[in-house]
What does this fold into?
Amino acid sequence: MNLATALLDVRRMDEADRLSVAGGMTIVELMENAGQSVARELGRRWSLRPVVVLCGPGNNGGDGFVAARHLAKAGWPVRVALLGSRENLKGAARANADRWPGSIEALHPDALGTAELVVDALFGAGLSRALPASVLETLDAAAARKLPIVSIDVPSGVMGDTGASVGAVAAALTVTFFRKKPGHLLLPGRELCGELTVADIGTPPGVLAQVAPNSFENDPRLWFGDLPKLRHDGNKYSRGHALISGGYPMTGAARLAARAAARIGAGLTTIAVPEIALPIYASALTSIMVAPHAANADFPALLDDPRITAFLIGPGAGVGEQTRARALAMLATHRATVIDADAITSFKDDPSALERAIKGPCVLTPHDGEFGRLFDAGGDKLTRTRNAAVRSGAVVVLKGGDTVIAAPDGRAIINANAPPSLATGGCRSSTSAARLISRCPSTA
It folds into this structure.
């Protein structure tokens, strides 16, 4: 997979730093480059004004001391407040604290003084505990005064692997290093980061492949090369034939999915509907073929056409045995199948029946409520989506403002660019169906 949009969890980021040091860099150099990049990014966005740098007891605090030194050198009025004592700092963080020529105040809301800008260098992405009271009080005081906050790595209190917050305050700007982390894209972390920029601190490029990332940010560079290319000698059958099960009386989402399949490039799209719904579908769809079926027994015959390459069932299908049976019939063909919405919920009493039936390419597209009817809904979003993909043998698309797409082999993609306008009935379902169908033509 293209590594251009790779995300690094905390363990892999630590390993990247270790490999950088093994390759000849020092922690002092990495910290110097990190702090200098924070000062540079801050200077690009704000004019000179009083700034306070809040430093923590670890390497994140060390980055803060470097940033403070470079800001002061550039003429900024800088104050530094530290959580804990200088004597308790270790390694490169202590070395950079000793290089700070000014005074160091104790971390407290009073340390904000007359500052008009705050640098949050308290805790980085590896935080796994609640924030100390003095940190919460100081950050809350900064937020109450509406002071712009520049966070180093992540806003203090955001967990780098999950995006979970333990009291974080929203930043105006977050400067991270080498690569983004999952917590920068997963909610609520994404909203707390504000503007996010990734700085180059000299990590050797070859390190990325060595740490073997398995999480990625959604981007055309990941999948564009895998999309089937149109051929001059192609025809409608070589471009794939999608069959969608349309329900009644809820017809909107299935129609959206059919239009999406056609628009993204399926050579043929058929929507199978109950006879009573034929006028509704036929009058609303033009290039989509509408196939009525008078009885449940008619439905399996529609699946026998070998030219059909992908199926979708779920949007508006209704929850019950009929939808469940149709989903199982689709899966029994071992052809590409999207199971969505009501089709997911139809297996809530026996999720293992769905898992046993998945033998070919399959995509499950639940939102959080549907996900909880089939899988363990506890834990962070990235982990539980991965676990569900491994357990089911399907690609699982856990929808939301931070949609996670996970494959059974452990790879996962986080989509962080969907507009809030997609929070309407049917939109995410039709998009998921179209993406699968576009990658499953008969010639692929």
Remarks:
- Residues 221-438 form a domain with the UDP-N-acetylmuramoyl-L-alanine:D-glutamate ligase fold (CATH 3.40.1190.20).
- The longest strand covers residues 268-274.
